[in-house]
Amino acid sequence: MFKPGDFVRLIHDKEEGRIIRHMSSNEWEIETPDGFRIPVLASEIVKIEKDEPEAQEDEILLNPNIKRSGRSLAMINFNDQSWDLYLINDTINTILYTLYETPKNGSGKGLASGTLAPLQFESLYRVNWEQLQQEFQGEIQLCTFEKNPISIPSTVQLHFRFTGMQLLRSSQVIPLLEKKGFLFSIDQHVSLSNHKPSVTNEALLKNEAIQIQNALSEVDLHTEKLIPDTNGMSAAEMLRFQLETFEKQLDLAIANNKTDITFIHGLGNGILKQELHKRLGKNPQVAFFSDAQKEKFGYGATLVSLK
Questions:
Q1: Which of 60, 47, 52 is nearest to 3 (CA)?
Q2: Percentage of the chain with pLDDT > 70?
Q3: How many angstroms from the chain centroid is the CA of residue 23?
Q4: Which domains does the chain have, with CATH numbers?
Q5: In whole angstroms, what is the distance from residue 54 CA to residue 171 CA?
Q6: What is the model's pLDDT at position 54?
């Protein structure tokens, strides 16, 4: 009957709010307009229409002109002692999820599981500041449900790590939630596997962990450095792969608190450089960027200074 993101009204005192998470079989947590969160029984609330009428839901889902951010994890500050971990489903498909904490020392711990409808979000777990100071790491598993799939969607299994410094330095507006916080794009971190079909999810996860520990200071974005075989790939596909690599390496540099990173893009027709500069100009974690080491690269590289 109810789901995270629904707007509801308390039957007895007429207080309104938005459902944040499912707490038990008959209890939900709602957030009021002034930011307070309160647990309520399902019998004490009724669903109300807010913002978008329900009749327009299918139209919104099927609109090809709306760019979706995909599946993500987000960390939103709750108070000075804790952060809330959200799962964001900014897609047109239902996803099934499981979430585990995987501490460095000790066995894994199941934190949450469930189903998330299209264009919805859910608060999965509250992380305290002590955990974030040490490093909070976990694993999320996702399975996409499509009514008429062209091919059966593969299951995503992804390891992640968050630190308090990462979160304090981030102020990105989170899709659907419309709040500032730290965003970790699940789809972006698994997208590189599209061009490496022989690599298993397990191998990708191991490689991901190594890259997180050893963020690069210099990244060569020339296609011959990134893709061993470009046969059958269009110019648009190669450009997309270069931009995915750029975004991933920039995220890793930020996550590892690096002060700067250099991207070697060459001159070419200037499209890659132009797109990089456009994205850098919108990133709140970038202090400034400029041409890098002209004596070595000419105008074929960009030095990015991070906050």
A1: 47
A2: 85
A3: 23
A4: 7-51 (2.30.30), 55-211 (2.60.40.1600), 215-307 (3.30.1370.110)
A5: 31
A6: 43
